[in-house]
Write a structure and sequence with these properties.
Blueprint (H helix, E strand, L loop, with lengths): L1 E3 L3 H12 L5 E4 L12 E4 L5 H8 L4 E4 L6 H9 L3 E2 L3 H8 L1 H11 L6 E4 L12 E5 L9 E4 L2 H7 L5 E5 L3 E11 L5 E3 L3 E6 L4 E7 L5 H18 L3 E10 L4 E7 L9 H4 L4 H9 L13 E8 L4 E8 L1 H5 L4 E5 L10 E9 L2 H14 L1 E7 L1
Parallel strand pairs: 1-2, 1-4, 2-3, 4-5
Antiparallel strand pairs: 6-9, 7-8, 7-9, 10-11, 10-12, 10-14, 12-13, 13-16, 14-15, 16-19, 17-20, 18-19
Bound molecules: adenosine-5'-diphosphate.
């Protein structure tokens, strides 16, 4: 099996692949990729370069991705040569373009914020203000997304590139549902996960499963995610990111065709982890059980401190490891940078409150700094 992308998602997938003697080969642009020393064959190469992708993939049985920004042309060519490509190149092409995603939601009757597509900054006033502007291609982790509050704001900051303008949703909660579907058409849906915000820093603090929502909403969110997968005829693992607004309505925000940050807790929290599930979906095997093993689980990203550079130093490891319900995952990155994802911690427990108390404790004791500060 080949994997395009050799970061932490590929790394955690390799951990599962080892159990089944699946030989995994990896391509990544960085010579220091997390998977560099864990794979049967590592190729350093540009994931957007069609020829590089073809060279890497020819001769493999199956190829998958841990990142969506890869050459669709290269993958299509591999598919034409008989390599099994999961997810399908056409689905990657759709997801790479936020504009096409929004159009597809409209076609499929999937609720998503009203939008218009524009070519550049001179058209950003077309929906009034405030407006969410998203670059159609190339954005990730919130980069390439901004809220424009008024015309002065737009004059100063609007992206001058093909964009989606989206009505701003009055967000109550950000939710995510991971769905797997294999080539035989079997599906498996994970419980809804909630991104819990820290209002002080206005950033996601941790992810909590189950989401603190009613059973009706839990069911609606799972059904909505399943509808997306079925409307797309998707094969692989799909993370469906949603908003719940203050009126109790769900809106699909966007899709990720791969394992997702909001599924890391499934390693310890659920019968079958998202990484094992991804392998099952890609290899067209029976899908695993998505049931939770604990009443509540949380996942806390370990990110580089704002002044951290050089070799990473993980503070608070001993306190964390002394807690019986805590599991630490480090991603093997040789250098730390401010806000870089360096690892994560999973907390399981008997209820949401006790898990949240432990998350708070870990938040105070764990820090990723570096040998160089400033
Ligand atoms: P990325 O792909 O970079 O993660 P997203 O589309 O998920 O970008 O947007 C990043 C964040 O911006 C979301 O998590 C949400 O907090 C906010 N956001 C995006 N779209 C809207 C919207 N229509 N209304 C309000 N907030 C939004």
């Amino acid at each position: 099996m080949g994997v395009l992308g050799g970061g932490q998602l590929g790394r955690m997938m390799i951990q599962e692949a080892l159990n089944w003697d699946v030989r995994v080969e990896v391509m990544d642009p960085s010579e220091e990729a997390s998977c560099r020393h864990l794979t049967a064959r590592f190729v350093q190469g540009d994931l957007q370069d069609a020829d590089a992708v073809v060279d890497f993939g020819l001769g493999l049985d199956v190829i998958t991705v841990e990142i969506e920004h890869v050459s669709v042309e290269g993958l299509q060519s591999l598919a034409n040569h008989g390599v099994e490509v999961v997810p399908r190149p056409a689905h990657l092409a759709l997801i790479q373009d936020k504009g096409r995603q929004k159009q597809a939601f409209e076609t499929w009757g999937i609720p998503s914020a009203p939008f218009v597509l524009v070519d550049g900054a001179n058209e950003v006033a077309s929906m009034g203000y405030p407006i969410v502007q998203k670059l159609r291609t190339g954005g990730y982790d919130g980069k390439g997304v901004q809220i424009l509050h008024n015309s002065q704001d737009a004059a100063q900051r609007a992206f001058d590139a093909p964009s989606v303008l989206e009505q701003r949703v009055d967000i109550h909660k950000e939710l995510s549902v991971i769905v797997a579907r294999n080539a035989s058409g079997d599906t498996a849906v994970y419980p809804v996960v909630e991104a819990v915000f820290n209002p002080e820093i206005n950033l996601v603090d941790h992810l909590m499963a189950p989401a603190a929502i009613s059973q009706t909403l839990e069911r609606e969110a799972r059904e909505l995610a399943l509808r997306v997968v079925q409307a797309m005829d998707f094969v692989g693992l799909l993370a469906v990111e949603m908003f719940l607004d203050h009126h109790g309505k769900l809106w699909v925000n966007e899709l990720a065709p791969r394992t997702h940050n909001s599924g890391h807790h499934t390693i310890e929290g659920n019968v079958c982890s998202q990484f094992e599930q991804h392998l099952r979906a890609v290899l067209n095997l029976p899908l695993g059980d998505t049931q939770p093993l604990h009443p509540a689980s949380a996942m806390l990203n370990l990110i580089g401190a704002p002044d951290a550079h050089g070799t990473p130093l993980y503070e608070g490891m001993e306190e964390a490891l002394a807690m019986p319900n805590v599991h630490v995952h480090l991603y093997g990155k040789s250098t730390v940078k401010p806000h870089r994802k360096m690892g994560h911690v999973t907390v399981t427990g008997p209820d949401i409150d006790s898990v949240q108390r432990d998350v708070l404790k870990l938040r105070q004791s764990m820090r990723v700094t570096g040998t160089i500060r400033g």
